[in-house]
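Let's study a protein:

___
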Amino acid sequence: IVMIQILNPIIKLKKAMTKVIESDFSVQLDEDERIAEVSELYHSFNLMVNELSSIQRLQSDFTSVISHEFKTPLSSIQGYAQLLQSPDLTTSERESYQHRIIVATKQLSGLSNNILKLSKLDNQSISSERKPYRLDEQIRESILSLHNQWEEKSLTLTIDLDSTVLYANEDLLNQVWINLLDNAIKYSEQDGQIIVHLKDSKDSVEIIIEDTGIGIPSEKLNIIFERFFQVDGSRYSSGNGLGLGIVKRIIDIHEGTIEYQSELGDGTKVFITIPHKKIEHSK
């Protein structure tokens, strides 16, 4: 009986490991074992399999991105580079082709950076990277950093920010505000309006970013956080559809929520809620 109790867990583990060797990362072992050491071993095995599964998905996604999203800008660079070899080009044509190569290069750079950000965020734990900071000042600085963009469209900004101290990852959340504000500006019409609210309560903070722009079709609201989604790729080709995926992942890491309310031609409202966390004091 003792031998059976010892051997059975080993046999189960061996069978599960064989499946993993065959690239089956769906296998999981029941951690409800009477022997504590076996239960801990099975728990470690399940964590390992989950990590391997995550890496496999990441590799698959990256391969898909390389084959699909990189193809267009690379083709543009190659095509315009070949055209630049012609000795009969006018100065304006040469400058135009050079500009288009630079634009395509920036698209590739932005896409690469966002893929790396998503890859890092997919496996990131930020508990040790949180600190208290002034959230209202951060949002205000994000708005000021985009001054040229909203001034170019003569946008009116209404800002109502409670004085707020948030215990969170400052660098990650800065990416959220820059991305959402940039979208609000990008999809706003000339002389439009952007409204930013920050309300602090005992348990959480709520941020609302509202614009009077082109809006989002209601049937697309349920897929806006999917990678490579774009509201209107023909009109706004500078994006790569990864920004909102990054935003959603950062909000998830902070155990918060993000919701969109929008109708085509009637602007967009973004609601973000982030719970307050207790400040961890080092011993």
Notes: DSSP finds eight helices and seven strands in the chain. Helices lie at 2-21, 36-68, 71-83, 91-121, 135-145, 147-152, 170-186, 243-253.
